[in-house]
Amino acid sequence: MKTNRRTPALLALPLLVLTVPAHAEEADDEAPRDPIIVTGKGLSDGPATPAYDVQTIARDKLVSSASGRIEDVLSSVAGIQQFRRSDSRASNPSNQGVTLRALGGNASSRAQVLLDGVPVANPFFGYIPFSALTPDRLGSVRVTRGGGMGAFGAGAVSGTIELESAGPDELGPLGAQALVNDRGETQGSLTLAPRLGQGFVVAGVQWDRGQGFYTTPKDQRVAATARAQYESWSGSLRAVAPLTDTIEVQASGLVYDDARTLRFKGADSTSSGQQGSLRFVGRGDWQFDVLGYVQAQDFSNVVISATSFRKTLDQAKTPTLAVGGKAELRPPVGPDHVLRIGADIRWSEGNLVEAPYSAVTGLATAFRKAGGRQSDLGLYIEDDWTIGQFVLTAGGRAERWTITDGYYHEVNAAGVTTTNTAYADRDGWNGNARGGIVWNAAPAVSLRAAAYTGLRLPTLNELYRPFVVFPITTRANAALKPERLRGFEAGVDFHPSDALNLSLTAFDNRLKDAIANVTLSSTIRERQNVDAIHARGVEASADLNLGRVDLSGSLSWTDAEVKADTAQAALDGKRPAQVPRLSASGTVAWAPRDGWRLAATLRHTGAQYEDDLQVDSLRAATTVDLYAQVPITRFAALVLRGENLTDEAIVTRNAGGSIDLGQPRTLWAGLRLGLR
């Protein structure tokens, strides 16, 4: 299993803020002033946030999942799904797209995932680097279902997932955790969060490694079958300091590397990256949020034949670069309004280098390069207006996008060029909008309704990179059009007390020109725009806090179908690939004493289809997870975790009876240390 180590130079970026004075000098030493409060967060939400279907995951749930993985935490929000049911320990990185509201069908993300305001999706593939996003380093996660607006709204056609880093109040000055499971696999993390004057620094590192489990069922294993071996690490450094009594600067760096083997010996893949960001947040009368970032990521993958068990493709590298930023202003327009005016920009490029190999001779038969560039400029304005019991919200976003410099180049083993295609540049303007209303009909009841549109550009991967999951080849399509969403929803929130919150939402979303992997023959698929994916459904959530006992649940039921024209008539009326009709999650937690936490989680994912023609199916799966934290000293606690305790057989792939399985029963034990 090869790894790809990169120098974490971007982690030095946060140290720049340490040269900033802790606060501005007083003109008058005797004049009183309010204390400077540094939060490390963005601007507060507007009053119209409840107009949309929003669910928040608090820190106590983030740090008490059975696996310690962010994918596991997100699955507590019913309706969030990856392309595959397996987590990042046993899934190819390029399959780690995330979406909501049954708008799936391929592996690209249709939800926008932000870490402290920065988009984290790989610019070439659209996957999310889950192994780099450690729950222990997060303070909260907010999931907004439905079309996105505001900064980086392009891409949020199914929703937005906002990850917010934790600060010293949540982390303490020192924290550490080390665990081992029943297969001898290990997971360890360390965080330091000292306060420095009026600001603070947070540094964290996590390292996971293991021999993995057999994803192949026992009756399908051969001599070349391998365990899903994995090793991943990530490091982050974040510094926050005040510039004045109303302005703070936030600087962040993240570096990560992930390597794993899947199904066969030699079928190795890697994912690595570095990113840095600088953010200025103003909380005075004229509030503002200005952010800039840079990201560098890479991906490699080796495909092993399922018949000869030799290397058939070596995707040696896929370097990508993304640069972007946003500027948002909130002028003081009166106590009844929250007005946002902003702009954001994202520019990215990516290139792949790969070589196909003969399954007979083991020699390279060709050498390929492909790639291109994309850009997106968004201008947006949105206002929340409070009128007595009503809150109205409306906003618009203008999108200027480009797809340029696309190419595909191939030479044969003798070095003779066989294909040299330069694709035509494309660009366009799109307008999107959203609006909603909240009626606080009574102290315990709120009614809401919203409508929205959205846009997602095809990824460079969808446009230019063909791929093989033996025996099926999926072709790229440089002529793909952007996806466009139109949707509306209505819901009710019932909150009779601080202890009980109930929410119910009905929605209707239509994704026009949805990009799907369309079957052309038993061994050939192609990425194509279908007329639409139409998804209608119901989402419900409940939270009950009884002091020492906490109960929470989430459910999503969706009727989704593909709308196709005559050329794709075989798809019309079928459910999109990899989309379950029903998903549900429920957790009961008990804290008998301070520092204790005992939790049990039940999850159910309904049956779904592997392919667009509904030939191969993945049966429903129900799992049970347990978590226990028991203090043993003032600064240490015993941690016990159990994943999939009933050892449910979770089918993650089914290609004509060739099966892959997800996480089996796994038991963890370890220690959590912390200073307060």
What is the secondary structure topology, with strand pairs?
Elements: E1 54-58, H1 59-62, H2 70-74, E2 81-82, E3 98-99, E4 111-115, E5 118-119, E6 138-145, E7 159-165, H3 168-171, E8 174-181, E9 186-192, E10 195-196, E11 199-210, E12 230-242, E13 247-261, E14 268-282, E15 287-304, E16 311-317, E17 320-330, E18 337-356, E19 366-387, E20 390-412, E21 417-422, E22 426-442, E23 445-456, H4 460-464, E24 467-469, E25 472-475, E26 483-497, E27 500-512, E28 515-519, E29 524-529, E30 532-545, E31 549-563, E32 582-590, E33 597-605, E34 608-609, E35 617-618, E36 621-631, E37 636-643, E38 651-655, E39 658-661, E40 666-675
Protein described:
The protein has 676 residues and is an all-beta fold. The protein has a single domain, classed as Maltoporin, Chain A, CATH 2.40.170. Helix content is 3%, strand content 55%. It is built from four helices and 40 strands. The strands form six sheets. The protein has a 25-stranded antiparallel beta sheet that branches. Strand 20 (390-412) and strand 21 (417-422) form a beta hairpin. It is globular, with a radius of gyration of 25 Å. It starts with 53 loop residues before the first strand and ends with a strand. Residues 1-31 have low confidence and may be disordered.
Summarize the structure.
Helix content is 3%, strand content 55%. It has 676 residues and is mainly β.
Notable characteristics:
676 residues, mainly beta, Maltoporin, Chain A, 25-stranded antiparallel β-sheet, five-stranded mixed β-sheet, 40 strands, 3% helix, disordered N terminus
